[in-house]
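Please go through this protein, sequence plus structure tokens, and consider how the sequence yields the tokens. Keep your notes short.
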Amino acid sequence: MTLRRRTLLGASWAAALPSLAALPLVATAATAGKKKPLKLRPAAQAPAFGERADLMQFADQQAAALGYDPQALKTLLAQARVQASVQRLILPGAPGQAKDWGAYRQRFIEPQRLQAGLGFWATYEADLARAEATYGVPAQIIAAIIGVETFYGRIMGGYRVLDALTTLAFDYPSPLPPGARDRSGYFREELRQFLILARENGLDPLSMKGSYAGAMGWGQFMPGSWRRFAVDFDRDGHIDLIDSPVDAIGSVAHFLREHGWKPGLPTHYSVQPPVDTAARAQLLVSDVLPQLDVNQFLAAGADLSQEGLSHVGPLALIELQMGGAAPVYVAGTQNFYTVTRYNQSSYYAMAVIEFASTLASWRKAGQSGAASTAVGQPDQQAR
């Protein structure tokens, strides 16, 4: 669901100065000894798709199923604009680049976001409690997802959703780098879902904003997930994930329950992986999907915590790389896997889980300073 932003920082003013010549400024020549003020030239708009044949064919083929007049749908889609930055951002990082759980963790589990989380929990305490009672998902997990996704509504994306989805549906990057796959089919279906969502709810598809992948609102729901899992939790008669944090709270909890969240089940246990490389690789083969029981972990040479030894049901060995340091391992349960259905990354799931734990600790303590160790370096053995 959600999806991340990247920031490029200039190394120095000296390095940045040459680029000033490329800024879209037009200086008029001095006349009669007087200088006219600099005029800003508006940045060029991204090119519109226009009446491109494949897009118009899509409109003709899908209009009836989507509930649109064919010509109206063509006119709408022709206004979508190709977004080169979307094409760049959707691609994975360079192959061979080491992942670093410690760095990833620090992006989210930091004082400002946690303080915002405390304020969010205080404001929506009754709604979070009602969502927990209704769907069985702990309030801190719901609050953590919204905090990690959008910093509690502060960062919900600035792309027109129509532009992002049309770009990824019809101009997915090509050729693809090694390890990447063409996901244009997925985004074409999300474009369909977005068009239906807009029509069903009387929304203007040309004004809706979201992430570079087309995710929207406080919880960054993709259009298909909005239509399947969003709920009217504030009971005002319509679902609004953009302007109703209460609807977002209920919808996040409903999404997790529908993806297998089990009330009362831990998300993971501490584990020491097998020393033997082949045995460890065998436990890692299922990635985040729990498929092995406690006895299989023990037979491979893993050392589970006391709580883990008492677990009934499948587990998955989760490896979180730490750059050049030794990786961190946990034994993930069904609930860990469920969090990865929101965003298919073990690093994301662990960030949500640790953010939730830290947020709950801060709330219990009643003040943030008591938790300074929680926002420093990650534990070498996660809880």
In short: The first strand starts at residue 25 and ends at 26. Residues 268-332 form one domain. The mean pLDDT is 87.
